[in-house]
Amino acid sequence: MELRHLRYFLTVARTLNFTKAAGELHMAQPPLSRQIRELEDELGVALLERRGKRVSLSSAGQIFEERAKRILAETNAAIVDSQRAARGEIGRVAVGFFEHIAYTLLPPLLREFQQRYPEVTVELRWFSSAEQISALNRGDVDLAFVRSLPLDTQLNSVLLLQEPFYVAIAKDNPLAAKRQISIKDCMHLRVINYRKDVAPDYHAAINQLCALAGFSPSTSFEMGQIYASLGLVSAGFGVTLVPASVQRTHMDNVVYRPLREQHAKSELYLAWKEPNPPAALGSFVQLAREIAAHAPRKAKDE
User: Which residues form the HTH lysR-type domain (predicted)?
Assistant: First the structure.
């Protein structure tokens, strides 16, 4: 039995006339009658009751008509949905993210993605930046925001952002009057670092910058999240370095000044494991690139 047999039967069942049904199907009447007979032989039941030129559905034919309609409807829906999935219009994407992405790049990306692809389910799963690659390799997520990639990685990735660092400093600190701050200017201030186990790339970057200036960052104040560091800055406990995108985050008594040492960069990638990812994942990556390309970089003057 093939799907065409169901279509033939349903046309006959609707018209109750072989000649009309054959005309709608653009075929001759004898081959249509033969196809219906073969279908009945295969099923072992009479689907139609034939009394001369009059045709009606048998009790078996009524049941078969109902089920055949469902089968064809489901088949057509499957065709449409598979085509939409191939275009990335439906599906599911599990995305790993870490702290400051949640209040910088992720909100506009999710908002636009939901508008463009309302039938793609996005599952968000939080991991620290250090755990993102492990989450990908375990299969916990399909796609992850990462700040650094191992040199020998087999993951696929795209670079979304390459940002300079800014100095987050209390507004009432005299150093905040400068338009640009060098790491050397922070020598006599407490430089708040990030925990090595949570943000190893930022931990290393701050250590290297301070070492070049001839001092070390604070070992007593190492935070796991940028927001926690900004809280200490707001309280006047020191200064910290953040990527440029974070300067859009408002916190009382905190201002952002460009770091003079422009060679230090914060990189953000999207990474995934599958060599031939689903189209929905590709749609998410493409939109992330668009959003990142137009993300505001400039801090408000304060």
Answer: 1-58
Could you tell me where in the chain the CATH 3.40.190.10 domains are found? 93-156+270-293
Under CATH, which architecture does the 93-156+270-293 domain have?
3-Layer(aba) Sandwich (3.40)
Short-list 78, 73, 80, CA closest to 10: 73
C-alpha–C-alpha distance, residues 78 and 3, integer Å: 14
Q: Are 213 and 187 in contact (CB under 8 A)?
A: yes
User: If you classify domain 160-266 with CATH, what class do you get?
Assistant: alpha beta
Label residue 5 exposed, middle or buried (CB < 10 Å: 0-12, 13-18, 19+).
middle
Is the full-model pTM beyond 0.85? no
- What single DSSP character describes residue 70? H
pLDDT tens, 277-286?
A: 888 899 999 9
User: Minimal CA–CA distance to 147: which of 264, 16, 31, 54?
Assistant: 264
- CA separation for the pair 44, 61 (Å, rounded): 12
Contact 194, 224 (CB under 8 A): yes
For 34-56, how does the pLDDT look when each residue is reduced to its tens digit (9 = 90+)?
Answer: 988 988 889 899 989 988 778 89
pLDDT at 75: 82
Third-level CATH fold of 3-86: Arc Repressor Mutant, subunit A (1.10.10)
What are the residue ranges of CATH 3.40.190.290 in the chain? 160-266
- CA proximity to 145, closest of 94, 184, 87, 186: 94
CB crowding 114-123: b at 16 or more within 10 Å, else e: eeebeebebe
Beta bridge partners of 111: none
